[in-house]
Give the backbone structure.
Amino acid sequence: MLLLATGSEVALCVQAYEQLKSEGIKARVVSMPSWEMFEHHCRNNPGYRESVLPSAVAARVSVELASTFGWERYVGPGGQALGMKTFGASAPLKELQKKFGFTPEHVIAAAKEQLQPGRRH
């Protein structure tokens, strides 16, 4: 199970990781602060992408408060990208995070969904 995020969302993934780990679920948090730098490093270092995003691990969840756009290249066709799909909400940050599912519980649920029998992981 891979949990991918950038910026402040990494902390959210770490919280989810800790819970998954306590339940005996193997997971890895991948911080991707810059897709451009990641891709550049991959081009210059054969095998780097595989070491960070093993192709054998299809169970993947990305978390991005801003948008899900672009994450499909890292979560793959069966992975799940958690992110904003609407605009216009206004409230204190904690309320918005809860409303739109940016909670450890929601990330954990998405991760467990990825690990359901019959899915390639």
